């Protein structure tokens, strides 16, 4: 026998689940059936008791009620077990219901077989009508399965039809045919109802699945919202920190301008000049750091990968910091394993080392700083160790967050913006380098970076001068500067002359072209990127190169990073962002020209 879910064969979504659902529906209705049976027995008693033996009727009534009670008991049992049953058991349960429903139909039909002949014609007709109606009612009770409807209605109608035909043989053929047609009609209704039920159950299941899906998506949305709120809070924290870090130097600048307005003596002037220089440098650093952090966060930081001598880079960085360390009374040791070639971005590697050295200097009051570079099977291990304040173990995971500063309580935290290590971490991630920190409060810290793609360089390579990162050294130093702002060219010229360079200035393209025609190319051209009247400093420099041969160019620009900077990079022209501290400017010029003469 097929299961009722056979009708749902078109529903690939678990026909077994549909069978379970249909059986549950049927069983729930059966729980109420003993009451209906009692009413039916009462009705039959009212029609028949005056004409039949009361004992016989009572016996039939007891049997009919028992049959219904057994069906209800089976339904209760089925309801408690349904959730755990396998497909095969569900099929057996359905077959059992079919058998029980046939018995229930028989128990009702027997009323006609046993008592119809004792009743007068009017009562006979009433009894038969009720039995035909009971068969229809049975169909509506068992709509969940056409097999159940067939079992119940066929036994009721069989008994009713047979009893009538026996009493009225002249009507037998017509009554039998009509009963059969009626039975077929009931089956048709049951089949349609079954399909409707199956479909509505399938729709309900789909709705439940869609609801569950919606709930999962809602939860996911809720989670993302939470993340967004955290990010917004983090962004607000960063903006507040940036605003604070920018306001501090601006406040200091405004105070210094008041000092300058009071026309102080040469010594105070000197000090104010040095402090303003420091402020400009720190604001420039902060802006640079912010821009770089933003680009590192969005993955748009341009890495320029190349092979370069890491040992040379480390050596030069140590030399650059030696003076500051000595001024603080610290010993700076530089231990390099030997010549080493690294495939990476020299500017990024140098930035990492500079930030680590900067911190080591800032947070070490006495003792030493040791920079080590070792070769380790395909890797280069670079470390910066100090004997400084150290970092509390609970803070160590957070020091790589933006604007996170450990409050040491001695004022040292005021020295930085809390971006140095965030940039170190992101640069290391971008270059797939491993960054580690070991630190003991009060005893010192050691930051180590494991660079991949490193190899030791043999003597032959060293002799060939394998070092892409070393600045080109030049003997003679004549610089041309071009900027459409006369105040900038004049202050730049004064500064460069102070540093010992020979400088000629122009304020536009014509002026600089005339200078080239008159005196030939310089050892360095410093040009603003935007020269006014739509003239592009890079294009001008490239045109001059095409006309007068190669010479180094340094571009200066106040814009946020964009296509112009990318073009400069593509042509290998270095670019300095405004405001550029004199330290940066000098560093750049020296890297292009070598130190000034004398
Ligand atoms: P900052 O600009 O404040 O130095 P960083 O991101 O470079 O910001 O460092 C974050 C914090 O980590 C610092 O505030 C400092 O407390 C701690 N820190 C970093 N390097 C060291 C070090 N070498 N010794 C002790 N503390 C350090």
Notable traits:
about 600 residues; 13 strands; Rossmann fold; binds adenosine-5'-diphosphate; disordered N terminus; five-stranded mixed β-sheet; five-stranded parallel β-sheet; Heat Shock Protein 90; alpha/beta; 16 helices
Strand content: 5-15%
Name the poorly predicted regions: 1-13, 463-475
Distance between the termini: 108 Å
Helix content: 55-70%
Taking all Cα atoms into account, the compactness measure Rg is: 48 Å
The total of beta strands comes to 13
What form results from the Cα inertia axes? rod-shaped
Query: How many helical stretches?
Result: 16
Largest sheet, if any?
Answer: 5 strands, mixed
Strand order of the largest sheet: 2-4-5-7-6
Bound compounds: adenosine-5'-diphosphate
Q: Average the pLDDT over all residues and give the rounded result.
A: 84
Order of helices and strands: HHHHHHHEHEEHEEHEEEHEHEHEHEHEH
Structure description:
- This protein is an alpha/beta fold.
- The chain folds into 3 domains: 211 residues, no CATH class; 159 residues, Heat Shock Protein 90; 116 residues, Response regulator (Rossmann fold), CATH 3.40.50.
- The protein is built from 16 helices and 13 strands.
- The strands form 3 sheets. A 5-stranded mixed beta sheet has the order 2-4-5-7-6, with helices on one face. A 5-stranded parallel beta sheet has the order 10-9-11-12-13, sandwiched between helices.
- The radius of gyration is 48 Å and the shape is rod-shaped.
- Adenosine-5'-diphosphate (ADP) binds next to helix 9 and helix 10.
């Amino acid at each position: 026998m097929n299961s009722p879910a056979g009708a749902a064969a078109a529903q690939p979504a678990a026909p077994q689940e549909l069978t379970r659902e249909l059986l549950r529906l049927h069983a729930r209705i059966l729980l109420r059936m003993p009451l209906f049976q009692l009413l039916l027995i009462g009705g039959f008693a009212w029609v028949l008791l005056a004409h039949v033996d009361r004992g016989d009727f009572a016996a039939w009534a007891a049997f009919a009620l028992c049959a219904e009670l057994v069906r209800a008991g089976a339904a209760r049992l089925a309801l408690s077990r349904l959730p755990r049953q396998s497909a095969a058991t569900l099929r057996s349960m359905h077959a059992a219901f079919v058998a029980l429903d046939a018995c229930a139909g028989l128990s009702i039909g027997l009323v006609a077989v046993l008592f119809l002949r004792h009743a007068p014609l009017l009562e006979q007709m009433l009894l038969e009508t009720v039995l035909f109606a009971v068969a229809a009612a049975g169909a509506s009770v068992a709509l969940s399965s056409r097999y159940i409807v067939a079992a119940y209605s066929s036994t009721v109608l069989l008994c009713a039809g047979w009893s009538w035909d026996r009493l009225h043989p002249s009507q037998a053929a017509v009554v039998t045919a009509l009963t059969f047609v009626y039975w077929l009609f009931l089956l048709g209704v049951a089949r349609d109802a079954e399909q409707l039920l199956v479909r509505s159950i399938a729709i309900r299941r789909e709705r439940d699945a869609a609801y569950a899906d919606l709930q999962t998506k809602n939860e996911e949305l809720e989670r993302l919202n939470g993340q967004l709120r955290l990010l917004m809070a983090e962004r607000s924290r960063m903006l507040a920190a940036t605003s604070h870090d920018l306001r501090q130097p601006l406040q200091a600048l405004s105070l210094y301008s008041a000092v300058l307005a009071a026309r102080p003596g040469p010594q105070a002037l000197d000090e104010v000049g040095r402090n303003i220089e420091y402020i400009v440098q720190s604001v420039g650093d902060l802006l640079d750091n912010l821009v770089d952090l933003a680009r590192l966060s969005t993955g748009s930081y341009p890495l320029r990968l190349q092979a370069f001598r890491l040992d040379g880079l480390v050596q030069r960085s140590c030399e650059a910091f030696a003076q500051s360390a000595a001024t603080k009374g610290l010993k700076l040791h530089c231990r390099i394993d030997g010549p080493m070639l690294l495939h990476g971005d020299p500017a990024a590697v140098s930035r990492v080392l500079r930030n680590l050295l900067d911190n080591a200097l800032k947070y070490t009051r006495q003792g030493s700083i040791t920079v080590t570079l070792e070769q380790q099977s395909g890797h280069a291990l670079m470390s910066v160790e100090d004997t400084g304040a150290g970092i509390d173990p609970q803070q160590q995971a957070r020091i790589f967050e933006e604007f996170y500063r450990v409050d040491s309580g001695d004022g040292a935290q005021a020295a930085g913006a809390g971006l140095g290590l965030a940039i170190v971490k992101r640069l290391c991630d971008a270059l797939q380098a491993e960054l580690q920190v070991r630190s003991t409060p009060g005893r010192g810290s050691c930051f180590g970076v494991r660079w991949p793609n490193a190899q030791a360089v043999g003597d032959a390579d060293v002799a060939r001068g394998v070092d892409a990162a070393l600045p080109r050294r030049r003997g003679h130093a004549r610089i041309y500067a071009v900027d459409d702002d006369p105040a900038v060219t004049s202050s730049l010229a004064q500064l460069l002359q102070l540093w010992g360079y020979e400088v000629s200035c122009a304020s536009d393209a014509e002026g600089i072209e005339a200078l080239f025609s008159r005196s030939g190319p310089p050892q360095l051209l410093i040009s603003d990127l935007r020269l006014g009247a739509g003239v592009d400093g890079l294009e001008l420099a490239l045109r001059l190169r095409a006309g007068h041969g190669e010479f180094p160019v340094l571009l200066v620009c106040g814009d946020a990073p964009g296509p112009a900077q990318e073009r400069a990079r593509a042509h290998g022209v270095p670019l300095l962002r405004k405001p550029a501290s004199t330290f940066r400017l000098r560093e750049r010029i020296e890297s292009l020209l070598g130190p000034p003469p004398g």
